[in-house]
Amino acid sequence: MKNIVIGICAFVLIGILILTVYTIHGRSIRQAELDQALALALEETIAKTGKNHTDGPKSNEEMTTLFLEKFLTQLESNSQAAVHILDADYEKGLLSAEAVLIYQHPTGREGSVSSRQTAIRETVVTQEQEEYCRIDYFVNGSSYKTFQVQKGSSLMVPGAPEVKGKVFQGWKEQEGEGILDLKGRKAERDCTYVAVFQ
């Protein structure tokens, strides 16, 4: 009789252990599914926004509708999903959402997992779109300062260099003559300026 009671207790404990492991495993699978579905839906939706996509969403409402369609097609389990859009801006390419997945444990109890993610469209500016000019300043044959400025913007002029026993007069172009007034001058090409001392 004692062995039968021990056997029944062992059987019950093994059953509880199996249910616990199965419950934990089920939760981690559903969490991974939710995280992946949310990330892919956000990524695909944001990829459709921007000037290069004429067939993409034209308003925040269209963007959230597209996101919800993509999100629901990503889910594979027989769970209920609740989605809350935290922020949406199709012009800036920003979409933030929180999703909750509600499911049944093997024991019949209800469980849930949640995920919150944000996607932002990456804007790549090519060298052709924004051209820069390199402006070099030299003092006594050695590099003093170097600046990269956007073409058409005002030159950046460094502070007056100091050389012992000499007075700084100004800057001249490397191949030019005469001191130049660089304040307010626009950068149109790469230039090298040399310090003039007296």
Taking all Cα atoms into account, the compactness measure Rg is 33 Å
- The overall average pLDDT, rounded, is 82
- Total count of domains: 2
Helix fraction by DSSP (H/I, runs of at least 4): 25-40%
Pick out the low-confidence regions.
none
Q: H/E series, N to C?
A: HHEEEEEEE
Biggest sheet features? 4 strands, mixed
- The backbone outline, from C-alpha atoms, is elongated
Strand proportion? 25-35%
Cα distance spanning the termini: 113 Å
Count the beta strands.
Answer: 7
Give the strand order, joined by hyphens, for the main sheet. 5-4-7-6
Summed up, the helix count is 2
Structural class by helix and strand composition = alpha+beta
Description:
By secondary structure, this protein is α+β, with helices and mostly antiparallel strands. The protein has two domains: 2-120; 132-197, Listeria-Bacteroides repeat domain (Immunoglobulin-like), CATH 2.60.40. The chain has helices at 2-47, 60-74; strands at 80-89, 94-104, 110-120, 132-139, 142-150, 168-173, 191-197. The protein has a four-stranded mixed β-sheet with strand order 5-4-7-6, with no helix packed on it. Strands 1-2-3 form a three-stranded antiparallel β-sheet, with helices on one face. A hairpin with a 2-residue loop joins strand 4 and strand 5 (142-150). It is elongated, with a radius of gyration of 33 Å. The mean pLDDT is 82.
